[in-house]
Amino acid sequence: MDSNFSHKVWQEVELSKMVEGGIPYPMVSDLGGKIGTEYGVYDEEKGLDVRGRFLIDPDGVIQAMEVLTPPVGRNVAEVLRQLRAFQHHQKTGELMPSGWQPGKKTLPPETETLTRAGHVWEIWKPDMAF
Amino acid sequence: MSVQVGRPAPDFTATAFHEGTAKEVKLSNYRGKWLMLCFYPADFTCV
Predict the structure, then answer these.
(1) Fewer CB near the terminus (10 Å): N or C of chain B?
(2) Tally of structural domains, chain A
(3) Residue A14 falls within a domain, yes or no?
(4) pLDDT digits (tens, 9 = 90+) for A71-95
(5) Across the strands, what pairs with A61?
């Protein structure tokens, strides 16, 4: 939401003390909430963007999104898990069951076809989600 | 507004603070890479 000047001040007085050299990625200025409106995260009444997060693949397609009201921060580890899962899927075609982490069991691409419907229990149990 | 998973992310061009200076950024210039787009209410809040 804020201006580039505000971003600069935040970088200098705080962020550069958390991360050496400051935040390395562009901090966009969404004055007026124009971009937030396009993405459905602009709260017109309060005049601010809520916490929206969009994971966009190399073709420009949104693969995942998460939107929170302001009081609660995000879970970076979960974003990275989703990123790795989508990357793994795009590379191999395999499916990632609940709670998948890199190195854990995946499901073959045909799991969701009719011939395999009703057979997931043979290869996957709920305790594998944790 | 209508963003949906599995659909193209709306493109935009905007001014941004990056590497110590104000720059123009365009979402579609990041094609070919994974990109995380984050919105937050205001500077000096948690992210």
Answers:
(1) N
(2) 2
(3) yes
(4) 888 898 999 999 999 999 999 999 9
(5) B8
DSSP A113: S
**More confident site: B45 or B30:** B30
Q: What are phi and psi of A58, to 5 degrees?
A: -60, -15
Which stretch of DSSP H or E encloses residue A41? none
Interface test with chain B among A56, A59, A76, by most B beta carbons within 10 Å: A56
- pLDDT value at position A119? 79
Cβ atoms within 10 Å of A82's Cβ, excluding its own? 18
**Predicted TM-score of the model (pTM):** 0.88
A56–B25 CB contact, under 8 Å: no
Domain match, A83 and A120 both: yes
| DSSP, res A30 | -
ipTM over 0.90: yes
Beta carbons of A7 and B3 less than 8 Å apart? no
A47 touches chain B (CB under 8 A): no
Give the pLDDT score at A39: 97
**A45 shares its domain with A81:** no
Q: Which residues of B touch A77 (CB under 8 A)?
A: none
Domain that holds residue A111: 77-129
Token pair, residue B22, equals 């104000």
- The answer to whether position A38 is within a domain reads yes
